[in-house]
Amino acid sequence: MTKRTAASKSVAATVKLTARGAQRLLTRHPWVYRSDVDAGAANDVAPGSVVRVQDQRGKFLGSALYSSSSQIAIRMISHGPVEDLPTLIADRIRASIEYRKELVHQTNAYRLVFSEADFLPGLIIDRYNDVVSVQILTQAMDGAAVRRAIIETLKKELQPSGIVERVEPRIRDLEQLPPRQSGLLWGEKTGTEVEMNGVKFVYDGLEGQKTGAFLDQRENYAAAARYAHGDALDAFCYQGAFALHLALQRDDRCSSVMGVDSSRSALEMADRNTALNGRELEWIEANAFDLLRDYSTANRRFDTIILDPPAFAKSKRDLEKAYAGYKELNLRAMKMLRPGGILVTCSCSFHVSPADFIKVVADAAQDAHKSMRMIESRGAAKDHPVLLNVPETRYLQCLILSASD
Ligand code: SAH
After folding, report:
1. Which ligand 1 atom minimizes the distance to the CA of 306?
2. Average pLDDT, the chain
3. Which of 145, 234, 329, 349 could bridge to 242 as Cys pair (CB 3.0-4.6 Å)?
């Protein structure tokens, strides 16, 4: 097979959808699966090119980015024609930066572009103070002209000291893109210091999970700190963000704060973050399930517990196991809470719906013989927009609960 790369200004090929594919677009979801693309219609389309999308009768439905390998063959990018993809992408990046001006406060670390939720499918851009981190997840976003447009726009709009690219090898493989290393795309800095809600963090653009931090929890850190008190435990603490927010509360309502995580490198960063804020905190390297079990056997009690585990349901097949995991964690935490205690419990599994998550936490409360009051039901920070008709953009849930006396 000869590989052609998308020329930025060539005439767009046309892709016809099946009736079901066209119907899907009417729901304002931007994805069409390969099985809903008219067979034969996409045989000669260059990987990563812009295509004109039509229904069965030839009616123009808009323009999309085409992937030759992903199950998601079509990702809509415009309801009209696209003259020049790099220009459109530069415009959309500027619009995303503008959108956040009103919504993002008290931080110099936040998501600037969130893929479909910012009408830029396959592109994620996070800002960490003067370092910008880019993730490219589709063939179209990987084109040389598009890459140039992304870098030039970020340089012009943000004047960063460095732009790094974080590569997800598994996704490049799925998209049949040549392997690449994570590294500096432009400038000189790959690491820096950032601040969220007045708490400082060390940032290393080439280390850690996601693009380095869990920026989607930023507003939840501040919310948790509003209610936390007494002895606090941050389970699945990663680099210590919840714990540090609790320890640095202005009115010092937490008498002790400790964090647990199974990743030693995450805890080393947690230590550096603690020092950066002029504090000392206890970080425990352990399996949080085991630690909670041991603590509850030993009758340890807490006034505040944070549960922010990794996504237990990566696919629909894992759902049963995921529910069992969430239930066990929440049950143990509730049993360990003193009367009036606060539980901050999160799920970042998109497949676990908000209603199902509440149900599983409610089941845990029933088994723990506790009446829990829901103080807040929260999602991701506002720099991670939720597109109403794209459920995949509403993946993070954070419940703040108060235990009965
Ligand atoms: N609360 C963190 C993000 C947590 S991400 C923040 O806001 O920054 C989930 C974390 O769970 C990761 O750091 C991962 O290392 C850790 N983890 C995964 N399985 C674990 C287990 N069984 N026990 C303890 N930690 C675990």
Report:
1. 1
2. 94
3. 234
Q: Which residues line ligand 1 (CB under 6 A)?
A: 214, 217, 236-239, 241-242, 261-263, 266, 287-289, 308-310
- For residue 28, the 8-state DSSP code is T
Q: 10 Å Cβ neighbour count for 76?
A: 21
Q: How far is CA 163 from CA 81, 126, 137, 346, in A?
A: 31, 10, 17, 31
**Sequential DSSP letters for 331-344:** HHHHHHEEEEEEEE
Percent of the chain with pLDDT over 90: 92
Average pLDDT over residues 264-277: 97
CA of 308 to the centre of ligand 1 (A): 7
* pLDDT value of position 4: 47
* Burial bucket for residue 109 (CB in 10 Å: 0-12, 13-18, 19+): buried
How far, in Å, from the CA of 233 to the mean position of ligand 1?
A: 13
Q: What is the mean pLDDT of residues 140-165?
A: 98
Active-site hit among 237, 254, 346, 348: 348
Tokens of 312: 């237990």
Q: How far is the CA of 211 from the centre of ligand 1 (A)?
A: 15
Domains and CATH numbers, the chain: 13-78 (2.30.130.10), 85-194 (3.30.750.80), 214-404 (3.40.50.150)
Q: What is the pLDDT of residue 8?
A: 46
Q: Is 51 within 8 Å of 67 (Cβ atoms)?
A: no
254 catalytic residue (yes or no): no
In this structure, which residue's CA is closest to atom 9 in ligand 1? Answer: 310
Contact 140, 32 (CB under 8 A): no
Confidence of residue 316 (pLDDT cuts 50, 70, 90): confident
Amino acid, single-letter form, for residue 382: K
- Ligand 1 center from residue 95 Cα (angstroms): 33
Sign of the torsion formed by the C-alpha atoms of 218, 220, 353 and 389: negative
pLDDT over 60 (residue 156): yes
Range list of β-strands (E), 98-146: 109-114, 123-128, 131-136
DSSP 8-state code for residue 71: S
3-state DSSP assignment of residue 245: helix
What is the separation of C-alpha 120 from the centre of its chain, rounded to a whole number of angstroms? 15
Ranges of H-type helices in 40-120: 85-103
0.85 cut: is pTM over it? yes
Q: Which of 206-220, 335-349, 357-371 has the lowest mean pLDDT?
A: 206-220
